[in-house]
Write a structure and sequence with these properties.
This protein is of the alpha+beta class and about 800 residues long.
Length: about 800
């Protein structure tokens, strides 16, 4: 027994020693990789200033050209004092010898170290002391009144995220230098106090979630490496990766199963807060590959979905080949010019580093195709249609254009005003439709354009009065959603103005090949003046060369007043618009120089801007029964638009409480909520869909409100030549139903022309119509997948004999 106990004890000691050795190896790997990452933080151009910064640094460690305003007097967003840390980090990266950009002469330089040391001393000596300043700066009642000594900001973000990120970066780069005891304590203090608070409220910042919490954890990893504390590193890494998993509750901050990233109560933010989370993942996973700290499969699954979905939201400026986020996906950051290097300027993540971080992501998490296309800067394209049910969002991509459509429901929020950014953004996210052809359409026009004319929206002109206290609103109705088969799709919005309900309507966007057909029905208003028209904004964009054409005729546009025109087609900047139902556009066009001020809509210091802008909108009939339908044809020639007007590729098909579009072998239908009965039907000519030349009809009956895509396809399987197949894709916009049913009744087969003639002869001879009926039942997804699309297949064999249906494999 004694021998066994001795052996057991020795084995335990050996295992412990082995684990300790593994920890030491993994910590050394993380440290080496992180220092290499952090040394690349400075803009390469900054290293050219190292000598100047050393020479111009004052004895107290400051620089005369840095804005050191703090406390209540400091700017809340993009706090200028961060430049102090940017210089210390640049000096530390040069001193470390790790930077591949810095002049090697600064490696272990005494001059550089003295500048680093003085810079650190200044901050640590002037650090704030009251704990209340962490999240409640400027609040006297809570212990941090204006005038409190120390370096702090009224924005919690400065103390909780910004400065700890910068200080932990500088300190880790300088860890192996001769830090004084006070400097060492200061390096720990700035990061430790925010990390220790992670499960509590950050004052005005509240309890942190999603991107904000992983920013704190990112700094905590640097803290653990600085102090060689494996417990901190392991805890911070695990928690950060646990945040990078799916969020399934509606409006919950984080990554959703459709790849949407939501923050701040259901705002689509893939291009800002989501981008921050992605960058942290790139760093953490890139550093942890091959160590026990690497991401597990739950994180890999979510990040794979997230990365693939991000690609859908990115467009390319075809002149510069610069990639950008769709403006629907960056929230309030639309209010910054590109030169401010905010979310509107760039995708702001390194694709090469992303590729390194996910290099061992095997099937089903592999994202190689996405990375390959992103590396091409738009030359290799993603084509198709994608619906994002968690964010009421749809993207339609074709070789020559991208269209992005954002709607509003009870499960989403339109936009927000934070730190003075986006005070006029009320209409954002409420049916927006941004169209990207060359990628410059909306670049740097936001300070100067008319914020009442957000592209795609249907509104009462100049209602409501735009103001900073009227920006952020959750939707009022739940029948809002998307259906997509990956190639085509539809987006539907049962809309009521979220501020005062002064306008409501039902609107659908049918994405059919190279166009989107838009239908607006059941338009109602209240408490509006008679002279305020109801309008749909066709576009509001940077001026394009070539002029505007209505019904093929060039329109002279005044630079100082609106131009009115009536016509069935409008062409401008390569994009075409066509009205339907013998109801021509009642157009208001405008083109000319417009002046605005970036500093009035954000914290940008860019100031006044004058840019040439074009806008076009058409009036909409107020009626419970009338439908206003039009199509948008991006990247179309004037000649092709004229051909569409003569022989449309698609056409609206509508019924009571039903909107739809048909053509090119596709039928898309939405059965709206309300009305006398949920069991409503729509009869469509097969010729209109493209399933027959001139005979036959399809009756579509829904057992409940919903949205459907029906596409006709031919199969060529051995022994089944001539078999026809319908693929029916359905979705529940309310995300509440468990099942849906749809009935299809054909009066003739959508088959070959010869078969149609034969059936016609048989019908005439027997006096009996040839029919086939199908009743499809859809079991709907739940949880985080609620609202996603489900598909059934209908096989039509031997004309109409022997019909059957099966789930799509």
């Amino acid at each position: 027994m004694r021998l066994f106990a001795l052996v057991h004890g020795l084995c335990a000691l050996a295992c412990t020693a082995l684990a300790d050795a593994q920890d030491a190896n993994d910590m050394a790997t993380l440290f080496r990789r992180r220092v290499a990452d952090l040394a690349e933080f400075p803009d390469p151009a900054w290293f050219g200033n190292v000598s100047k910064w050393i020479d111009t640094q004052k004895p107290d460690g400051t620089w005369a050209d840095v804005n050191y305003l703090s406390g209540c007097a400091a700017r809340r967003a993009n706090w200028p004092i961060q430049e102090h840390w940017n210089r210390i980090i640049t000096l530390a990266a040069a001193w470390s010898g790790v930077s591949s950009v810095a002049d090697p002469k600064w490696s272990n330089s005494t001059e550089a170290w003295e500048a680093i040391s003085k810079g650190l001393d200044y901050w640590f000596k002037n650090d704030y002391k009251p704990a209340a300043c962490l999240g409640n700066g400027g609040n006297a009642a809570l212990g941090c009144p204006c005038g409190t000594p120390g370096l702090w900001n009224t924005n919690w973000y400065g103390q909780a995220v910004l400065i700890p990120q910068l200080s932990s970066t500088a300190c880790l780069l300088a860890r192996d230098g001769h830090l004084s005891q006070e400097q060492h304590k200061g390096c720990i203090r700035l990061t430790e106090r925010t990390y220790d608070n992670i499960d509590q409220s950050y004052g005005t910042g509240g309890n942190l979630t999603a991107a904000n919490i992983v920013l704190v954890l990112q700094s905590a990893v640097s803290l653990g490496l600085f102090t060689n504390n494996v417990t901190i590193v392991e805890s911070a890494m695990k928690r950060a990766f646990s945040v990078m998993t799916f969020s399934d509750a509606a409006m919950q901050d984080g990554i959703h199963r459709d790849g949407s990233f939501l923050q701040h109560d259901g705002i689509l933010y893939n291009g800002n807060y989501g981008k921050d989370l992605l960058n942290i993942f790139i760093q953490l996973q890139g550093e942890a590959v091959g160590t026990r700290f690497a991401a597990n499969d739950a994180t890999r699954e979510a990040m794979s979905t997230f990365i693939k979905s991000n690609e859908w939201m990115i467009f390319t400026d075809r002149r510069t080949r610069q990639q950008h986020w769709d403006f629907n996906a960056i929230g309030r950051f639309v209010s910054f010019p590109t030169k401010d290097l905010q979310a509107s300027a760039d995708i702001n993540f390194n694709v090469t580093k992303l590729a390194q971080a996910v290099a061992n992501f095997d099937v089903p998490y592999n994202v190689n195709d996405t990375i390959k296309r992103l590396k091409s800067n738009g030359t290799e394209q993603l084509i198709g249609n994608r619906g994002f049910w968690a964010s009421d969002y749809m993207v339609h991509r074709r070789p020559s254009f991208i269209i992005a459509n954002k709607m509003l429901s009870t499960r989403s929020t339109n936009s927000e005003l934070v730190n003075g950014a986006n005070p006029l953004g009320y209409h954002l996210g409420q049916g927006t439709l941004f169209t990207y052809v060359d990628g410059t359409e909306y670049a740097d026009i936001w300070a100067s354009w008319d914020w009442n004319l957000i592209p795609g929206t249907t509104v009462v002109r100049n209602r409501p009065f735009l103001a900073a206290n009227k920006v952020k609103y959750q939707g009022k109705r739940d029948f809002v959603g998307v259906v997509s088969d990956g190639h085509v799709g539809a987006a539907v919005e049962d809309y009521q103005d979220p501020l005062d309900a002064h306008i409501s309507y039902k609107k659908a966007w049918f994405y059919l090949g190279d166009a989107v057909l838009v239908s607006v029905v059941d338009v109602q208003t209240k408490n509006t003046s008679d002279d305020a028209p109801i309008i749909t904004v066709l576009d509001n964009r940077a001026k394009a060369d070539g002029g505007a054409f209505v019904d093929g005729n060039k329109i002279e546009l005044s630079t100082n007043r609106d131009t009115r025109a009536v016509g069935s087609t409008l062409w401008y900047g390569g994009n075409g618009y066509m009205s339907y139902d013998d109801a021509p556009f009642q157009l208001t066009l405008s083109e000319g120089e417009r002046t605005g001020n970036w500093s009035a809509i954000s914290t940008s210091t860019a100031g006044s801007a004058t840019v040439p802008i074009f806008s076009a909108y058409t009036t909409v009939n107020e009626s419970k029964t009338a439908t206003t339908s039009y199509a948008v044809f991006p990247a179309i020639s004037l000649e092709k638009l004229a051909q569409e007007a003569t022989k449309p590729s698609w056409k609206p098909v509508n019924g009571e409480g039903i909107s739809g579009a048909a053509g090119q072998g596709i039928l898309s239908v939405v059965f709206w909520p309300g009305g006398r009965s949920n069991h409503r039907s729509l009869i469509v000519n097969l010729a209109d869909v493209g399933w027959a030349r001139d005979s036959g009809a399809l009756k579509v009956t829904a057992g409940q409100p919903g949205v459907y895509l029906i596409t006709g396809r031919r199969t060529g399987r051995t022994g089944e030549e001539g078999v026809k197949k319908l693929v029916v894709t359905a979705a529940d916009p309310t995300q509440k139903l468990e099942t849906m049913t749809l009935g299809l009744e054909f009066s003739t087969s959508p088959g070959d022309e010869e078969e149609e003639e034969e059936e016609k002869a048989n019908t005439e001879a027997c006096g009996v119509a040839v029919k086939a009926e199908f009743r499809l039942a859809f079991a709907l997804p739940k949880g985080g997948m609620a609202g996603s699309s489900v598909t059934r297949e209908v096989v039509l064999a031997d004309g109409m004999s022997g019909p059957g249906s099966r789930d799509k494999v």
